[in-house]
Amino acid sequence: MATLYYEEDCDPTALKGKTIAVIGYGSQGHAHAQNLKDSGHHVIVGLYEGSKSWKKAEADGFEVKTAKDAAEAAQFVMILINDEKQSALYAESIAPAMTKAVERGETKTLGFAHGFNIHYKQVVPPEGVNVVMIAPKGPGHTVRSQFVEGKGVPNLIAVHNDASGDAKRLALAYAAGIGGARAGILETTFKEETETDLFGEQCVLCGGVTALMKAGFETLVEAGYQPESAYFECIHEMKLIIDLVVQKGLSFMRYSISDTAEYGDYTVGPRIVTAGTKAEMKKVLTRIQDGSFALDWILENQAKRPHFNRMRELEAAHPVNAVGESLRQAMSWTPKTEAPGGRR
C-alpha cells in the first residue's frame, strides 16, 4: 500500500522565514497563493509586465513583482503557468536567479504542479537547486473552495533533486499550506505523475469521457430522439454517476442505481470499451512513455498551434454545446458565470 501523509506528518515551520513566489495567478496560482497566505506563509506573486492578473493579485493583498524579480526575492519558486509556456519563462526569468543562488552557495527550491517540463527535459535546473512537485488532484477553484470550507484536495508530491537535504520536508509543508494534508498527500515521482496524468487525461478523463458522451448523444439524435433528451441521458447525468463513484466507489454507484441499469452496466459496458479499446490505450501510453506525445505538443506550440486551434473550433461548433447551453440556462441553480481560466 502507498503511504499517505496528513497534517501530523507535515512541518509548516520548514517554510518559516522563507518567501514563496507563486509564478502565475490563474486557476492554480490564485488558489495556491491565497491558501498559503491564509496558512501564515509569506507569499509574493510573479507575473509578466502588463498581465491582466496584476491588479487582481494586488487587490487580493499580494505584493506583485515581475517573474524575474520574484524569483530573485524568493527562496521557494512555484511555477504555475501553462506547461507550454514554462520552458521560455524559466530560461528568461527564473534560470538567472537559480544560477546566482547556486554561485552564492544558497539553495533555492523550484516547484511545479505537473512534471511535464522536468520529465521531458524542457526545464533543466542547476544541480544545486531543489526541484519538487506539489500537484493538487483538482482544479484551482476547488483547491481554494475546499480550503475555505476547512477541507482539502488530495495532493501528489515528488522530489526530483534534493540539493538541501530537506526537499521532501519543504514539499510536504507547501502541500499542507494549500490544504492537501487535510485530504492526504501521496508521494510519487516526476515520471509517474507525468505519464499517469497524461494517460488519464487523454484516455479517460478528457479524451475518453468526452468522446463517449458525444458518441452517445450523436447516436440518439441520429436515431430521431430529441437532442435535449440525448443531452440529459448522455451528458447531464454523467456527473451524478461520477459523484456516486467518487463518494464511495463503483460498488456504491451500482448499489445506488436501478437493477436494470446495473444489469446494463455489466452486459453492455464491455461491448463499448473492448479489448481493442484497451489495446489503443496501451499505444497511447507507449507514446507518452517514449516522449512522442510530448514532442508532438512541443512542435505544435512552436508552429503556433494550427492543428490544436482547428480542433478547438470544430469541437466548439458541435451541436451538443448549443443544446447544453440552452438547457443549463433554464436551470436556476446552475451558475451563470464563466469558468476560471487557465489549467494551472
Outline the secondary-structure elements.
Layout: E1 4-5, E2 19-23, H1 27-38, E3 42-47, H2 54-59, E4 63-66, H3 67-73, E5 76-79, H4 83-104, E6 109-112, H5 116-119, E7 130-136, H6 140-148, E8 155-161, H7 167-177, H8 180-183, E9 185-187, H9 190-205, H10 207-222, H11 227-248, H12 250-256, H13 259-272, H14 275-289, H15 292-302, H16 306-316, H17 319-329
Parallel strand pairs: 2-3, 2-5, 3-4, 5-6, 6-7, 8-9
Antiparallel strand pairs: 1-9, 7-8
Describe it for me?
With 344 residues, this protein is of the alpha/beta class. It has 17 helices and nine strands. It has a nine-stranded mixed sheet. α1 links the parallel β2 (19-23) and β3 (42-47). The longest helix is centred in the first third of the chain and has 22 residues, at 83-104. The protein is globular and about 70 Å long. The model is unreliable at 339-344 (pLDDT under 50).
